[in-house]
Here is the input.
Amino acid sequence: MDGVTGLTFVILAAGEGKRMRSRHPKVLHRLCGRPLLGYPLRIARALADRIVLVVGRDADGVRRAAGAGVEFVEQTERLGTGHALLQARAVCGNGPIVVLPGDSPLLSEATLTRLIQHHAKTGAAATLLTATVERPAGYGRVLRQRGRVQGIVEDRDATDDQKKIREINTSVYCLDPRPLWPALAKVGASNEQGEYYLTDVIAILAKAGARVEAVTTADPAEALGVNDRKQLAALAALQRHRILDRLMTEGVTIVDPATTYVDDTVSIGPDTVLHPNVTLEGETVLGAECVVGAGSQIAASRLGDRVTVKPYCVLTEAVVEDGATLGPFCHLRPASHVGPKAKIGNFVELKKSRIGRGAKVPHLSYVGDAIVGEDVNIGAGTITCNYDGVDKHRTVIGNAAFIGTNSSLVAPLTIGEGAYVGAGSVITKDVPPGALAVGRAPQVVKEGWAQRRKATRKKD
Ligand code: UD1
Ligand code: CA
Here is the structure.
């Protein structure tokens, strides 16, 4: 970071997360598409010279989720936030240490930058990030005397008067390592939880006459933490609004922000329109001037420009190229690739298939494990029979072929370029280019049959 060198970020992510009542560690619960841990890591990756993650519960799972560029230390017993930071001592250098909790996803990089700069400018031993909130219950309260920070008292240990204080500790600190480590060694566990609280370091430093500074967030929401599932939902709602605000600023039309769900990991080009009840998840990319119809759900997919998704489509790990049209009511399963200007209509399911440029699968079809050429027309009700009960087989359909309605294409099968398949066929053998294949019982016509039947039938 500009003007500050040797900056180490320590992210505390070892906690049990008891209040989540979960089989998984709290920091791996997802908020708008990222694990909680992903939020502090993103800030750390932008600002830190070195990132240390304190892991404990499901240490391996947390390590995997953290990814590259992170050093890990393990807190084998959960003895509190002070004890957690102490585990990082050996890997911290002489530069300033920024401590971040793993469960505060709304913190912003701008606020962290302000905290670090204030710390550097004042030469403080410790600078804490505080916030003034409407409902401080559950958070540590900041104790001040004549404006100077004297310490932090945890909600559980606070007196009734202290509980009235609305300035809370965010669990974000910038600390000078020289006074920090001796002060941390003095922290005891004589509190309601019997834990070694990092918060106690502040009073120890202040009492010793060290300079303790505080920076307050402009937006109190940044301070909010996730301790239980109600808070997870409440913070997700706030984050969702931020994401939608950003997208609208970037030129995306959102018809009804109250019912639109877009993950933090999604990117969308300008002049794209999202209709109500749309959900966009994971690493999804939408190009410019797309329309996503009501009720559609798109996950981990890539759409080009000017793609029209009519209402109620479900896409997972699909690629859709420029100008294609989907739906209403289509299902693109993983590894579906729809070429430019192709059309996938209602009640069509695609799986692991490529649909060529300008090809049409307009109604009621299943296309799986298939390669469909350019300008192919697949009639209503066509099924690729890709599964023989043991293995999956491939269907290849050449450019400009025409598959009549209600055909069953029994794979493995190749249909040549420009070939025709008659409606209602069951095709089990390859069809050469330009040929017509008909695989259905020939039609029988019995002239006058109805008349004769009436005559022979007895009346009651
Ligand atoms: C903590 C602060 C509180 C502050 C609040 C802000 C303390 C004692 N209290 O309370 O003042 O208002 O955050 O959200 O610090 N962790 C470990 N090892 C442990 C315990 C916790 O790594 O032994 C990690 C957790 O995974 C979590 C973070 O530290 O990411 C904070 O722990 P948590 O138990 O959520 O603290 P709070 O009770 O919220
Ligand atoms: Ca917390």
Notes: Residues 12-15, 54, 56, 75, 78-81, 83-84, 101-104, 139-140, 152, 154, 168-171, 197-199, 225, 227 surround uridine-diphosphate-N-acetylglucosamine (ligand 1) (CB under 6 Å). The longest helix spans residues 229-249. The chain has two domains: 8-223, 229-437. The mean pLDDT is 97.
